[in-house]
Amino acid sequence: MVQYDDMVQALKELRQRGYSMDFSLLPDCLYCASRSLKLKPEDFTVTETHRFESLDSSPDNNAVVYAISSNDGKNKGVLVDAYGTYAGVMTHEMAKKLNAHKF
């Protein structure tokens, strides 16, 4: 897997490789507002994860970038999520799906 120096570089290169959608995390699914698309845990695969920590270890600057592909192969995008104190609230199924790939 490719190692990136920073989150900006990771997002840029993932977009160049076709991960063009921006997903947001809802409690029970991933949502892409530009396409009004919802992906439940059983509808997508996490193909890559990249963890980034701030130099000062401040929890509000820590994030994970997920490269996401829909199981039908039609949709690819990224999810940027905080971890630690500021991690999003989600269902057990979503947590299990994402945490299996977090680190």
Please explain how this structure is put together.
With 103 residues, this protein is an alpha+beta fold. The protein has one domain. The chain is 17% helix and 34% strand. Strands 3-2-1-6-5-4 form a 6-stranded mixed β-sheet, with helices on one face. Strand 5 and strand 6 form a beta hairpin. It is globular.
Chart the SSEs and their pairings.
Blueprint: H1 7-16, E1 21-25, E2 30-32, E3 37-39, E4 44-52, E5 63-70, E6 76-82, H2 92-99
Parallel strand pairs: 1-6
Antiparallel strand pairs: 1-2, 2-3, 4-5, 5-6
Kindly list the characteristics that best describe this protein.
single chain; 103 residues; alpha+beta; six-stranded mixed beta sheet; 34% strand; globular
- The ordered string of helix (H) and strand (E) elements is HEEEEEEH
Taken together, the total number of domains comes to 1
- Kindly report the spatial arrangement of strands forming the biggest sheet: 3-2-1-6-5-4
What does the radius of gyration come to? 13 Å
Major beta sheet, specifics?
6 strands, mixed
Q: Helical percent range?
A: 10-25%
End-to-end separation in angstroms reads 13 Å
Question: DSSP helix count?
Answer: 2
